[in-house]
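Re: beginner question about structure tokens

> Can someone show what the tokenized structure looks like for a real chain? I only ever see the sequence side.

Sure, here's an example I had lying around. Input first:
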Amino acid sequence: MKTQTYAVIALLASVLLVSACANTIRGVGKDAANTVNATQNAGKRVANAAQ
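And the corresponding structure tokens:
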């Protein structure tokens, strides 16, 4: 195989890896936001129950 073919394969692999990382980071952000919302809602329920 030619060097140019290796370069194209490496470029495609890099694009796939970067896109996979972006999806993972976005998913972690959503999970963190959901955790914060759940914690806040639990705190409100406890505060309401204490009244």
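Each token stands for a local structural state, so reading them left to right follows the chain. Residues 26 and 32 are 10 Å apart (CA to CA).
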